[in-house]
TrEMBL record:
Residues 1-21 have a biased composition (Basic and acidic residues). This is Retrotransposon gag domain-containing protein. Residues 77-167 form the Retrotransposon gag domain. Residues 1-26, 203-232 are annotated as: Disordered. Transmembrane segments: none annotated. It comes from Cuscuta australis. It holds the Pfam family Retrotrans_gag. InterPro entries: Retrotrans_gag_dom (IPR005162).
Amino acid sequence: MEAKLERLERKVGEKNDRDKPLAGSPFTTRVHLTPFPRKIKIDAPRFTGKEDPEIHLDSFNQSATMNGCTDEEKCLLFFQTLQNRATEWFNKLRPGSIDSFSDLASKFKAKFQENCTKRKKFIYLSTAGQRESENLTQFLTRWKEEVDKVEEMDDKTVLSLLLNGLRARELYKEFCRKSPATYQEAYHTAWEFAEAETQLRAKREAEHGHKSKPVQVKKEEAPGPSRPRHHYDPVIRVVNTEESQEVRKAPVIPPENPTGQVGRQWSGTYCSYHRSDSHNTSECKSVKGVIQQMINSGELGKDYLQKA
């Protein structure tokens, strides 16, 4: 009889010991009694306390699920993904306070919530459309970065925002002709157009850099003047002297018959001021008188006549 009582007391004591949390461990005894019949490798980056806790939990959960881990196994394996400040936080958790992975995840997010990425509302993408100076490659690269800043969206929403963000160019015309069924289809097609756009631009630059040189006519083959021309001195043409406009040098070609008289031979001189062949414009006293008046009034420099 006494032996039976001793065995019963021993079993009760063992049960009480199992119900007590292990010294220093934040998990309950139930979690610690979980057997590990196999080796499990969690493919997740280390969390130091500076990263986004939600991203880390998602990465850990995906890897643990792929390995077929139970809830208790997730609890025991999670510590392996922590280091530095995150390890210090884990070691300070109250012993026996965590009985499931959801408990651990909640405490983890609450501690490092200041590191969570602040996601913008999806309407933000309506301001991230293609700029006038952007080609497709530049736009799609920037678009991907902007999408990563926004909260989760359904496929139709992000597809609509992408189509509205495009400029009225070849890609937009293609989508008007054949509307994409999904966002992934539209995004894939957009990159195909971007690559074609890059190749076309390179082709144009190559063609522009290899333009055929214009054919140069040799000097001896160049056509000469249709008829011999007499030599004319540069003349000074005065335009609207009453309004004091600028006087400028210009070569003047006389009319075919400067004299205006049929049958009279041209003397070889011509004055554009008097429209006469009695003298050259550069020798005309009337022109020099007008110029002198403009010099005196300050409209022309004092050395203008010397230059003329």
